[in-house]
Amino acid sequence: MKIGLEIVTDMNVLAQEIQKEIDAETLKHLTKVLSVGVEKVRKKMEGVPYQDHTGNLNSSTGFIIYHDGKVVHRDFRESDKGTDKKTGLKEGLSLALAELRESSGWGVVLMSGMEYASWVQGRGYDVLLSASANLDSILKEAFDEIGTIE
After folding, report:
1. Other C-beta atoms within 10 Å of 74: how many?
2. Which of 3, 93, 107, 117 would suit a FRET pair with 149, their CA atoms being 20 to 30 Å apart?
3. How far is CA 91 from CA 63, 86, 88, in A?
4. 64: enclosing H helix or E strand
């Protein structure tokens, strides 16, 4: 008497499923880390001696995440305050999208899109610097949380 067992698996399907899970976790962690950084900057812009009267600088500050050259997440929104918030939103998003690269893999663009952003930053106000400070180590820590896929 002989009993046989044959298990057939499609490694390509399995690899695709694992890659989807990795991509979902990557997007989740990139979004979380960048959102915290940008939100911190947006809050600092409110109520400081530099007053963004138009709301353009705050509205132009945000980020996009792209994967294989396509935008998979973006976070630009109009400021709560200001007289002309739409211009900043349009400028920030437009400039961020212009930075997209035809590439494979993941990329991020962190942007404060008004032409005077560096001037304001140079005067000692936090426009984008704290959102990008220690970004490498924060991302590494976030990806260490992913651990192993079960």
Report:
1. 17
2. 107
3. 12, 9, 5
4. strand 61-67
pLDDT tens-digit series, residues 22-52: 899 889 988 988 888 888 888 777 666 567 7
Q: CA 73 to CA 48: how far, in whole Å?
A: 29
C-beta contacts of 69-73 below 8 A and 24+ residues apart: 69/100, 69/101, 69/102, 69/103, 69/104, 71/97, 71/100, 72/27, 73/27, 73/30, 73/31
pTM tops 0.85: no
Q: Starting from the edge strand earliest in sequence, which strands make up the sheet with 106-112, in order?
A: 70-75, 61-67, 106-112
Give which of 40, 124, 57 is closest to 92, Cα–Cα: 57
